[in-house]
Amino acid sequence: MNTNQEGYFGTFGGSFVPPKLKEVLDNLANEFERYKEDPEFNQEFKETLKEYVGRENPLTYASRLTKSLNGPKIYLKREDLNHTGAHKINNVVGQILLAKRMGAHRIIAETGAGQHGVATATACAMFGMDCTIYMGKLDTERQALNVFRMELLGAKVIPVEKGQGRLKDAVDVALADLVENYESTFYLLGSAVGPHPFPSMVKHFQSIISEESKKQIVEQEGKLPAAVIAVVGGGSNAIGSFAHYIEEPAVRLIGAEPEEAATMAKGKPAELHGFKTLVLQDENGAPAPTYSIAAGLDYPGVGPEHSYLKETGRAEYYTVSKEEVLEAFQLLSAKEGIIPALESAHAVALAKKLAPQFSNEDAIILTISGRGDKDVAQVHDLLKDRKEKQG
Ligand SMILES: *Cc1c(COP(=O)(O)O)cnc(C)c1O
After folding, report:
1. Which residue has its alpha carbon closest to ligand 1 atom 2?
2. What are phi and psi of 46, to 5 degrees?
3. Hey, which of 55-69, 168-182, 288-302 has the most confident mean pLDDT?
């Protein structure tokens, strides 16, 4: 809804890029429009999700969590059970299939903490595609194990030294590569951000989350949920979790974000990476530095459709603190035997906070965007630090 040819969501979105790149992205937009309606393409997408990713994944009733919160019935959408342990693979598979149709044999991608890079390298191995991952030099040092993982999967990881050696710089270099090599190369973007058509394309592939959950909740509860709650980094798992409910006004759409990167709460409209959205800014109007304990949420912008859903009031966004997230991480682990990613623990923390707003008759869906194995060592250290401080 509300997206036209140029990829606007109200006043947000669009494409503010140099002419050469605009040409490449316009072509991508046309190819995407064509294949997303193509039955053969869609069948291959669904089959790959089934055979390789392990979809459909369950909508698990969390009975002990429900009891402990004494509010609505809580259902968990289990993206943590996907191959590679998170929702990112849904989008990666979709875009690689599109790349193949477009005749590309080389995939490039950016990665910050490495999660999108690992998902991309995984699917490239599976489809036999040449894979190059751009990663800020600083990030390659902090995430050495993810660099090794990507290399193990057959990808070439190129450390970017330019600028601050962070994610933003990796994006710039990847875009330059795309402009130079667009005939053979496909740029696989990892979240619902960037210039048109990326936000619409990533939403399309991640919408499988709510396509499944809507069918599952009706089967299990005989009605729609009172709310859907998901964490918002760039916004891909959240927009995928919301998509099939946007036109259902009785369903509250709720996004969780970290206090330390509260783009929705404190951001102002601006242009970032070639599109308009809410952006956290410093006093000079430059993108503000963010820091989140969850590496996947460390971004000063957000997908343009979330900015629009906030502006129109269709979706609500709230922040949770680091302490609340650490508590939720332990709560879901102890109550349900599911260790969530620190990113996903933001959604759990928000569900706990908002539970009193719902009745025992209500059902709410909580997207568990990923599993927490990657975060266990970090949480161990954080809790130990805290204990020592408390003496
Ligand atoms: C990357 C990541 C996120 C944040 O990205 P979105 O595009 O906002 O979904 C959230 N959870 C997990 C597990 C991730 O890996």
Report:
1. 296
2. -65, -40
3. 55-69
